[in-house]
Structure formats: structure tokens, C-alpha cells
Design goal:
- There is one protein chain.
- By secondary structure, the chain is α+β, with helices and mostly antiparallel strands.
- It folds into two domains: 4-88 and 243-277 and 290-411, DD-peptidase/beta-lactamase superfamily (Beta-lactamase); 101-221, Beta-lactamase, CATH 3.40.710.
- It is built from 13 helices and 19 strands.
- An eight-stranded antiparallel sheet has the order 3-2-1-18-17-16-15-14, with helices on both faces. Strands 8-7-19 form a three-stranded mixed sheet, with no helix packed on it. Strands 4-9 form a two-stranded antiparallel sheet.
- β7 and β8 (262-267) form a beta hairpin.
- The longest helix has 14 residues, at 96-109.
- The protein starts with a helix and ends with a helix.
């Protein structure tokens, strides 16, 4: 493991005189974990690389707020012969969502938002949104979608992708990249019927992007500024942003497409569009980050809203993020035909609420987390006070790395 490099040179990361401290690193035994058992992670990741299911990855395990395992594997850019490094920058896609949720809940605590606010209170264009029946036919919604619905994905909204007329309507005006702005998306969605009545279904889609627009309205400033001022800056997430600046471009990972045993480049490191400032800065995806940056955010959540002496959220608010908040009779979440049995959703994270071998068989009750489209993953285990992050850049999305490592990490717990 190579954790000592950044641990003993904090000034290289945070700058002299900074109030922000690096994450502490300890021997696994000091945290009640087996170093020998954790060492099996190496072989598991290397096998996935050998099987051409992975090109490169970073893995980090924390217990009690201290790093006990951190390692880099494979290549950041295979064609260039550039190995993965601890400070490699990843496109984190939907890992953006939890940051958006935290920002919204901070505003709720301050009284600038309420969980039961109808969306139209902050985005007036959504007043009296109808519900889709079929092409050219709608009906009145029994109630308006709320901020709570946006946080738990029960507002009646769906995804930008897909062939359904509602999804196609969302995409209207997005043909030209310069038209891809948060306000344009809001306008398109507001002109489109809800896919289903609020509260009746859990559907993953654009809810977090709409939530970002609500946050921006309530805070009276651009969403990017809100998260930078309230979370990214104070937490010391120095490498997390909507684009990669020129001086950090040599740390950007290549995003790969894997089909069978064929590996191709989906988005390069050199010349990638993420090196340019994007017009669309939403709450559902778009951020880039490093494994240590995101660990700082997750440790704040694991701590119940506090990190390095600063409180970001009350513990009872964080509990809403990491416990099931789905209305009855919803029992678990699903993606199309993929049923995630035993897994529900809070106001920000998927939550394990029942043992069910049909999905994520090694997950423990109370585990919560999420991931991103390029197969990045994270989960927090309250039972063992663990924070685990796996970073890779592999599409289409898969859970290979998380599923391979979860039993190994839990087997390493000594006490």
C-alpha cells in the first residue's frame, strides 16, 4: 500500500497554513482489521484486470475516519502507458447526486427550503403539472411533486435517456451542446407531463438536476457556487469540480467501453470534453473527483454531519439521507427489469433494509451508498464504521468491483 506518500506530505495537497487536515492513515490492526485479509483485495482487482473487465482502479477503505487500505491498480491511460495513481481524477457521474442532496438539506435546516415545499414554490413553471396517460392525453395530478420527492426520486420524473415520449420531450433543445444548460432542462421538463403521480413509484432520472435548480433558486446563486461554498471548499475537496483545469489534465483517467473482451476508448484523457468548462452544471451528474476528495465528503456523512471540527448537517438530518424514506407500498428500488431486492432509498442514498440473496448478497442491514455511470461505487457500513470507495472508468455500468470486494472487506473485520 502507498498511503504514506500523501500522509507525510500534507502541505503538497492542502497548502501550508490550511485549517483542513489530510485524512489520517493507520495500520489496519489499530482499527480492528486484518491486514492479511485486506491484502486479498489486491488479487481480486488484478483478476478483474486480467479478465479484461477492468483497466485500472483506485480502492480506499476507511474505518473510524482513518484510512486502513488504499491502493492503485492498472492503468489510468493504457495507450499512453500511464499507471493509475492515488490522485487520478475520475468522472463520478451520479456520485454527484449525494452532494446535491446534502446541499439541499443544508438549506432545509436554514429554513430556505422545506421538504414539503411543492417544486413550483421555487420553480413556478411546474405549477399544475399534469400526469401522462398516453400520447396527447393527460390527467390532473393528485398533488404536486415536492422537494422530498426530488430527494428520494418519487416525484413523477423519469430519465433523459430512453424512447418514451416523456424522455424525448426532456431532450428537446439538447441537440446542440451549447443549449445544454440547467435552465433549459428545467423549461423542457416543466412543459412535459409527469410520468406518474408523485409518490406512487421510484424512478431514477432527472430529479437531482431539478433539485439543483431548486437549490439555486432558494440560495439565490448558481448551484455550482452553492456546493463549492458550502461543501467542496470547506471539506477540502480540492480536486472536485465540473471540469479539469489545465494544470491537472495529466491526472485525468481515460473512460473505457468494455464489450465482452473488447476494450475501447469511450472518452480520452487528452482532448476530453471534461477539460472544458461545461454549460450544464446539474445536480445529477457532471462532477469529477479523486478518491480521497470523495472520501472526505463520505466521512462527513458517516460522522453524522460533522467533519474536522465543523458541522455541516445535523445528525437527525443525515439520518433522513441514510434510512428508508420511500412511501408505502414501495418496498425496493428497481432499474427497469433489474429489481434491487432488499434495497430502498433515503433522501440521498440507497439503503439496505432487508436480507435478500437476489441482490447484493453480501450487503449488511443498514449499509447505504450509491455509484456512478462509469462503474464507480461507494458504500458506508454503520455496523462496522466503514467507508469504502472504488473508482474506475468503465462503461457500460457494472458492479463487478464492489461485489468482488465487499465480502473480502467484511471478512477482514476483527472486532
Amino acid at each position: 500500500m502507498k498511503t504514506w506518500i500523501l500522509f507525510f506530505l500534507p502541505c503538497l495537497v492542502f497548502g501550508q497554513g490550511s485549517d483542513i487536515r489530510p485524512l489520517p492513515v493507520v495500520d489496519p490492526a489499530e482499527a480492528g482489521m486484518s491486514a492479511e485479509a485486506l491484502g486479498k483485495i489486491d488479487g481480486a482487482v488484478e483478476r478483474l484486470i486480467a479478465e479484461k473487465k477492468l483497466v485500472g482502479a483506485n480502492v480506499l477503505v476507511m474505518r473510524g475516519g482513518r484510512i486502513i487500505y488504499e491502493e492503485s491498480f492498472g492503468m489510468r491511460d493504457a495507450a499512453a502507458g500511464a499507471p493509475m495513481q492515488e490522485d487520478s481524477i475520475f468522472r463520478i457521474y451520479s456520485m454527484t447526486k449525494a452532494i446535491t442532496s446534502a446541499a439541499a438539506l443544508m438549506l432545509c435546516e436554514e429554513g430556505k427550503l422545506s421538504l414539503d415545499d411543492p417544486v413550483e414554490r421555487h420553480l413556478p413553471a411546474f405549477a399544475e403539472a399534469p400526469v401522462w396517460i398516453d400520447e396527447g392525453s393527460t390527467r390532473q395530478s393528485p398533488r404536486s411533486p415536492t422537494v422530498r420527492d426530488l430527494l428520494r426520486h418519487t416525484g413523477g420524473f423519469t430519465t433523459l435517456r430512453g424512447a418514451h415520449p416523456v424522455s424525448r420531450a426532456y431532450r428537446r433543445g439538447w441537440v446542440r451542446p451549447k443549449a445544454r444548460r440547467l435552465d433549459r432542462l428545467v423549461a423542457n421538463v416543466a412543459e412535459t407531463p409527469l410520468l406518474y403521480p408523485p409518490g406512487e413509484r421510484w424512478v431514477y432520472g432527472i430529479s437531482s438536476d431539478l433539485l439543483a435548480a431548486v437549490v439555486a433558486s432558494a440560495a439565490e446563486k448558481p448551484f455550482e457556487e452553492v456546493i463549492r461554498e458550502r461543501l467542496l471548499g470547506p471539506l477540502g475537496m480540492v480536486d472536485t469540480a465540473y471540469s479539469v483545469p489545465k494544470e491537472k489534465a495529466n491526472r485525468l483517467t481515460v473512460r473505457y467501453q468494455i464489450r465482452g473482451e473488447t476494450i475501447s476508448v469511450g472518452d480520452p484523457a487528452v482532448g476530453s470534453r471534461v477539460l472544458q468548462d461545461p454549460g450544464f452544471k446539474g445536480g445529477g451528474s457532471g462532477l469529477l473527483s479523486t478518491i480521497r476528495d470523495y472520501a472526505r465528503f463520505l466521512q462527513m456523512i458517516a460522522n453524522g454531519g460533522e467533519f474536522q471540527g465543523r458541522r455541516y448537517l445535523r445528525e437527525d438530518t443525515v439520518d433522513l439521507m441514510r434510512t428508508n424514506q420511500l412511501p408505502r407500498p414501495l418496498t425496493h428500488i428497481s432499474f427497469g427489469s433489474q429489481q434491487r431486492y432488499g434495497t430502498a432509498f433515503g433522501l440521498g442514498f440507497a439503503v439496505r433494509i432487508a436480507d435478500d440473496e437476489r441482490w447484493d448478497p453480501d450487503a449488511l442491514l443498514g449499509d447505504y451508498g450509491w455509484g456512478g455511470a462509469a462503474s464507480t461505487h461507494y458504500w458506508i457500513s454503520p455496523r462496522h464504521d466503514l467507508v469504502v470507495i472504488t473508482m474506475e472508468q468503465t462503461m457500460p455500468y457494472n458492479g463487478n468491483l464492489e461485489l468482488a470486494l465487499k465480502p473480502l472487506i467484511y471478512d477482514a473485520v476483527l472486532k
